[in-house]
Each structure stands twice: as structure tokens, then as C-alpha cells.
Amino acid sequence: MSIDETRITRAILAAALRDWEEISSVDVAIVGAGPSGMAAAYYLSRGGLRTVVFERRLGFGGGIGGGAMFLHKIVVEPPADEVLRDVGARYAEVEGAPGLLVLDAAELMAKLASSALDAGTKIVHGVSVEDVIFRRDPLRVAGVVVNWTASELSGLHVDPLFVSSRAVVDATGHDASVVEVASRKVPELGIELRGERSAYSELSESLVVEGAGEVAPGLYACGMAVARVRGLPRMGPIFGAMLLSGRKVALEIAGRLGAGRTTP
Ligand code: 48H
Questions:
Q1: Number of domains comprising the chain
Q2: Which of 28, 55, 94, 159 lies 20 to 30 Å (CA to CA) from residue 150?
Q3: What pTM did the predictor assign?
């Protein structure tokens, strides 16, 4: 077999451009490959919806990777163990703390990603969402505006590309950057960002899941983005609400868009 450089280049170009052509119009565009975005992607894809995740960085997991102050463990509480079992991530009960489960950060990142990919999610790294597409009659968010993270970092003026979608999910974490840009640049959506509050783990774990969902027509939030949008406390390195809010948003979108097999 001859390994010809031109063939390597053409193979990559052809496959990547084929993917981008498909990605240019999807059912759901998820912004951020952290725990909430990956959980949402897994359940959406499992339900048969064409789902793409755009991730600014070159890896999966968002805040999972740093564990807690770089210690490579995180905790989760029921009923988020249902998500752990769905993606095959192992966990252990915490002695003396009934209801708390502990697991490896690396395992959760890997299992969320591989489950989402196996279910059909397309994950594109090194791409940042810098804006949304909106439509009138009826007023709604109708997709995202994307650019290479490298051009964002370089400060060069490079015009973006567009991805239209039936739903957009802000899973960008503390920044809630998609909801933020939509609230600023499409004021008629009437989105109010209330700002994240100081730590209160137990309260936050339930309120983030409760608050996850549609923020404006076509635009949904899960994970820490919910805390910034709804004015909720942070919770520290406990990830139950991240997984459960991702699953909740997926089920809500699947219900609206009419997917089949998402329900666990
Ligand atoms: C493309 C983007 C963009 C963009 C950001 O921070 P994450 O892990 O988000 P969540 O909400 O799934 O999980 C939050 C959790 O990690 C956490 O921080 C917790 C529980 N904190 C509690 C506390 O008290 O501090 O992941 C977001 C991902 C990251 O990978 C970003 O790189 C990516 O989104 N991202 N990708 N375009 N505009 N903005």
C-alpha cells in the first residue's frame, strides 16, 4: 500500500466537508461538551434526533476534567445514578454519607462522550458559537453562528458560518454565553439574565434541574447556564444537576420535535 500525502489530504477534506454539509442543518445544536451538554446529546441522539455538539476546546467533559481542585473525583446524587447507569459509568457509595456517590472524573468524561457518539451525536471540537440566528413570525432562535476557536483566539477578522437547527441548547456552563448573546442582540426575545449566586449546594442541585428548559422560543439552557439565567446558587463539584438538567432538556426537546426512543 502506498501512503500518498495527497490522498491523506483529500480523504480528510472529503470526509470533513461531507460532515459539515450535514451539520449545516440539524435538529438540535448543543453548545458545549461539558456534562450537561453531553448528557443532553446522548438522550437526544438516542431518540433519533440529528444532534451536533460544538465545543470550543479540543476535548470533552468541560468542568469534569478538573475534578474538584484538580482531585480526580467528583460526586453525584440520586437520581443522577440513572444517567451513570445509562452511559455505563461506575460509581461507589460514599461511606458515612448516604445518598452521595463518588466516581472518576476521567471515566465520566469518556463514558458520556462515547455513549453520545455511539448514539449518533456529531461532536466538533475547536469551534466556538459566537452568535445565534433568529427569525420572526413567529419570533424564535433558529440556529447558531460558528467560527473556529483559532480565529477567535487570533483576533483576526474571519467571517463565520451558519448552522440552522430546530432547537439550540446553551450548555456553556457558568458563562451562559449563547443565552447572553441572544438576550443582548435579540432584545425582543425578552430574556433576562439574573446572574449566578453564591454556593448553596442542596438548593442549587434541585433548582438547576427545575429551571432547565426553554429560555426563549427555540433556545434551551441546561447545566450551570441555568444558574446564570435564572439567578440560582452554585453547587461546587457535585454533578447530579448537570446530568439531570441535560436529560431534562433532551426530553423536553424530543417531546416538542417528536422523537421516539429518548425516554429512559
Ligand atoms: C463552544 C463553548 C462556548 C462557546 C463555552 O462548564 P461546563 O462543564 O458546563 P456544564 O454546565 O455542563 O457543567 C458545569 C460544571 O462543569 C461546573 O462548572 C460546575 C458543576 N460548577 C459548580 C460550581 O459551583 O462551580 O462545560 C461547558 C463547555 C466547556 O467545555 C466550554 O469550553 C464550552 O462549553 N463552551 N463551546 N462555543 N461559545 N462557551
A1: 1
A2: 28
A3: 0.97
Whether residue 57 has its Cβ less than 6 Å from ligand 1: yes
Q: State which residues form the domain around 40.
A: 25-257
**CA 69 to ligand 1 centroid distance, Å:** 16
Question: 67: which 3 cell numbers?
Answer: 475534578
Kindly state the average pLDDT of the residues 56-65: 96
Query: Residue 221 forms beta bridges with which residues?
Result: 170, 213
pLDDT tens track for 222-251? 999 999 999 999 999 999 999 999 999 999
Q: Is residue 105 included in any domain, yes or no?
A: yes
3-class DSSP state of 11? helix
How many percent of the chain have pLDDT more than 90?
A: 95
Supply the CATH number for residue 159's domain.
Answer: 3.50.50.60
What are the binding residues for NAD(+)? 36, 55-56, 63, 129, 157-159, 177, 224
Does residue 65 form part of some domain? yes
> In the numeric block, which cell numbers belong to residue 160?
463565520
